[in-house]
Amino acid sequence: MCCAEDSSLSLSDGDFDLALDLNDGHVPGLSITPLMEEHIFPVCAPTLLRSRPPLRHPADLAWYPLLHDVTAWRGSHEHAEWERYLEAIEAPPLNLHRGYTFNRHHLTMEAAIAGMGVAIARQTLIRGELESGMLIAPFAQRVPTGMHYGIVHASGARDDRRVAAVHDWIVEEARRAVGALST
């Protein structure tokens, strides 16, 4: 069965064959095949910059609405990505309790494309939008989240050749994607 779930839901042994999950590498009672580490950074639509002060330094974010993904990773809160990013680059304090919140990463990115504000993007999920120019990254710094995408499964799940085939295909596609991200 294929099913998309909110990152706030717990993974329960036996409810699935394989799950793609963004986590810290620990899912009690289950096995994880690590795929790739996630990095985050701010993005916005180029049109957003036309009507506001320049966005050259993190302190300039004070002039822009912030877009928040409340389901950044399991157990995160609605400002977790912004906090992690700004702390990692040692940015000056900023009021993060403003802007708009969304319950899916793709909705947050759609809001950024629409020019609603500046969002935190996940490197593995945003390449096409950056290459097409729909979004730009105003700052060069990309910050590791400490979270990794991985395939979560019960021990023994890969004994089923069908599950093993899907697992191995996902691993190979992830290797290709990691290679593409590093170019």
From TrEMBL:
Residues covered by the LysR substrate-binding domain: 10-174
A single GO molecular-function term is: DNA-binding transcription factor activity
Q: Name one GO biological process term.
A: DNA-templated transcription
Alphabetized InterPro entries for the sequence: LysR-type_TF_proteobact-type, LysR_subst-bd
- Source organism's superkingdom? Bacteria
> Per UniProt, what is one Pfam family of this protein?
LysR_substrate
Family named by the database record: Belongs to the LysR transcriptional regulatory family.
Q: What is this protein called?
A: LysR substrate binding domain-containing protein
What organism is recorded for this protein?
Answer: Halomonas ventosae
